[in-house]
Task: inverse folding
């Protein structure tokens, strides 16, 4: 049987979160609220870094890029999820499904490398404060950021292309709210365990290696912080690194459950909940986490939201 006779699937049906209409409306309202909070919070951080000259430093350049990434990360999945809550057909074209699949994993991979770059920045700033300005120049910061985006979007290009070339002859129902690797591989007509193993091997390597690098960086940072004589210096270092570690823990904790540990025993509902946590909830929490204990960022955000009022009162 040749491929033209077998590949009959032209669209997929994403079941999302099945349930009565009132449950769908409740979930729609909740996810929409989280999406608006995510866009508002991350856009505010970008504007704060852009408008405040004091924040034109490598640390905040990384943070602004991180916020920009989070906006696109949630936009990759949430708008379609919202449409499906109100739709009866819940369909997505074949090309649209694989485009979402590619961008979802590419943006997630970019986030892993960006978190590594942010950990490296804090390591240099705290462990080598005298050499930090000469090492972490604006040019070097731009190179690191470019590498994060380029590598992130290149890693899954070939594996996802090969998955898209597999035969999909039906059924075309995906019991998820996005196009993920497991649901898609379950719908292929051809037995290709090699493709799936390669995909998961790449995912595992990226998650484990970047995770270990971040943990190693912060272990060295912790050792350096404990040697700081003043309590104010230690507190400032802990507050700067603590927010980053919290973000790393939320993101890596959930993606490791999904793509590193065996997930065959977990229910489909559990997969959906875990995916919602790292792809929808975490990006909404990040602006609060990064600004909660950062005085400079809190002042800059206050200027973004209430700038005119402050200027009028001054």
Result:
């Amino acid at each position: 049987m040749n491929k033209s006779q077998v590949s009959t699937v032209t669209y997929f049906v994403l079941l999302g979160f099945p349930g009565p209409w009132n449950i769908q409306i409740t979930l729609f309202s909740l996810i929409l609220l989280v999406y608006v909070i995510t866009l508002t919070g991350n856009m505010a951080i970008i504007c704060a870094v852009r408008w405040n000259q004091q924040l034109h430093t490598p640390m905040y350049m990384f943070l602004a890029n991180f916020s920009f990434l989070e906006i696109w990360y949630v936009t990759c999945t949430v708008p379609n999820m919202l449409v499906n809550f109100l739709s009866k057909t819940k369909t997505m074209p074949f090309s649209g499904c694989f485009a979402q699949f590619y961008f979802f994993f590419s943006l997630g991979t970019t986030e892993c490398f960006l978190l590594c770059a942010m950990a490296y920045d804090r390591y240099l700033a705290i462990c080598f404060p005298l050499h930090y300005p000469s090492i972490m120049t604006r040019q070097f910061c731009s190179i690191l950021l470019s590498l994060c985006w380029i590598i992130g979007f290149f890693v899954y290009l070939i594996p996802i292309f090969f998955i898209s070339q597999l035969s999909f002859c039906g059924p075309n129902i995906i019991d998820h709210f996005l196009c993920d690797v497991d649901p898609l591989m379950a719908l292929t007509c051809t037995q290709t365990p090699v493709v799936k193993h390669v995909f998961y091997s790449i995912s595992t390597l990226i998650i484990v290696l970047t995770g270990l690098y971040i943990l190693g960086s912060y272990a060295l940072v912790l050792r350096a912080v404990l040697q700081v004589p003043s309590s104010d210096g230690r507190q400032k270092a802990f507050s700067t690194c603590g927010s980053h570690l919290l973000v790393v823990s939320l993101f890596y904790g959930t993606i490791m459950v999904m793509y590193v540990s065996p997930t065959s025993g977990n229910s489909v509902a559990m997969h959906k909940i875990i995916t919602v946590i790292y792809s929808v909830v975490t990006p909404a929490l990040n602006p609060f986490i990064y600004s909660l204990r950062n005085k400079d960022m809190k002042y800059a955000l206050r200027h973004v939201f209430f700038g005119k009022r402050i200027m009028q009162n001054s």
Observations:
- Residues 1-7, 309-314 have pLDDT under 50 and may be disordered.
- The two ends are 77 Å apart (CA to CA).
- The first strand starts at residue 11 and ends at 14.
